[in-house]
Write a structure and sequence with these properties.
By secondary structure, the chain is α/β, with parallel strands linked by helices. Helices cover 37% and strands 22% of the residues. It has a single domain, classed as Rossmann fold, CATH 3.40.50. Helix 1 packs across helix 5, helix 2 packs across helix 3 and helix 5 packs antiparallel against helix 6.
Length: 198
């Protein structure tokens, strides 16, 4: 049975725990919790990793501990060690070019200036991998400072739904494949709620 690799991008440590840049970490941690997959530190991969079945698929969950700018090293090492095909990777990442509560499921696209994605492209020697981009909004604050800010008082109550929607997109990727899931992945959260309730 083929393995799938779901990567959550972020920075390790309490200092960064609830920042916009760490939404990838939060989603993948929540995915592991939903399916009772326990994360353990793997020194050789410099990551936290969890294994198990999600909807009858063999899945590895990876949280690089390399800090964002070197995430690609952990992803490359994991691919090589566990023999995961690049077509079965999904990277969960924050995106300041997308409005808060919006999502994009993409492949073969540029890094968009995101240092974590730049690092992955550098170590994989390709941009031909899938990514779930989660909109964290944008303000007039300098970008490097903005992504390290915590979500606002108004945004925090909405994070639960954003994480749940992200998990549902990941589940769709695992069971339905990328193409079919991308049709519901590139939408706003409120539109998704309306479609789900029809």
């Amino acid at each position: 049975m083929e393995n799938f690799l779901i990567v959550g991008l972020g920075n390790p440590g309490i200092l960064y725990e609830n920042t916009r840049h760490n939404i990838g970490f939060k989603v993948v941690k929540a995915l592991g919790k939903k399916y009772n997959l326990e994360f353990k530190k793997d020194k050789k991969l410099n990551s936290k990793i969890a294994f198990g079945k999600i909807l009858n698929k063999e899945v590895l969950l990876l949280l690089p501990l390399t800090y964002m700018n070197n995430s690609g090293q952990a992803v490359r090492n994991c691919l090589d060690y566990y023999k995961v095909d690049i077509k079965n990777i999904l990277v969960v990442v924050d995106d300041t070019e997308i409005s808060f509560e919006e999502f994009r499921l993409k492949k073969d696209s540029s890094s968009g200036g995101h240092n974590g994605l730049k690092s992955i492209e550098h170590f994989l020697k390709t941009n031909s991998y899938k990514r779930l981009r989660i909109g964290v909004g944008r303000s007039g604050v300098e970008l490097s400072k903005f992504v390290l800010q915590r979500f606002s008082k108004d945004e925090k109550p909405k994070l639960k739904n954003i994480i749940e929607k992200s998990i549902e997109i990941i589940e769709g990727f695992l069971t339905e494949g990328f193409e079919k899931t991308s049709n519901i992945g590139n939408i706003k959260l409120n539109k998704f709620k309306e479609e789900k309730n029809e």
